What we know:
Blueprint: H1 3-33, H2 55-89, H3 94-105, H4 110-117, H5 121-136, H6 139-143
Helix pairs in contact: 1-2, 1-5, 2-3, 3-5
Amino acid sequence: MTDRQYGAKEWLNEAYRLKTTELRIKEEYAEKLNPGDGAVDYSKDSVQSDRGKTAYEERLISYSMALEEVDKIKAKIYRIQRTRQVAISLLGDTDHRAILTARYLNQSSWKQISRQMNYSISQLKRIHLAALDGIYDYIPEVDNE
């Protein structure tokens, strides 16, 4: 794989990495803070904190802030995926578009793509490298939009 192909692959994978790492972590954190999960000790609700808020109110605020972070990451993932869709749509070759869409936007496995497109996996990987070469030229163009 050339530097050019590697750069295109990394660029295409950005949303996937965000989705599998940062978003998952933030969602798990928000779930732990969820005041409706039964983990709140309601017997302490009447005890006021130094700032005049109950423990339950503090947990609601923390949960709300965690959900805002999750929403920000989801919006970033959407923006990244949208730029990838635009770049892929600019490719002239339909096989290149199909492979990159299936692999990077739909997260399909090589086996699934092979069945869909009726190519061997080795053929797909050769086409994939050519598609990465082709999309590399569009990276700065769509990132600047």
